[in-house]
Amino acid sequence: MAVDHSTAQGHGNDMEAHVRDYSKFTAMLKWGAIISAVIGFIVVFLVIS
Prior knowledge:
The chain has one helix at 14-48. The chain is mainly alpha-helical.
């Protein structure tokens, strides 16, 4: 028999933990993209020179 997790007890803080982890993950992706772009510009500048 399937269990409905929306009514199961003990899952009160799961959403808070999920939002906290997801915001850290998206911040890591953002900074990774920025750092990669900066390194890419440096490489392109060095290749052109």
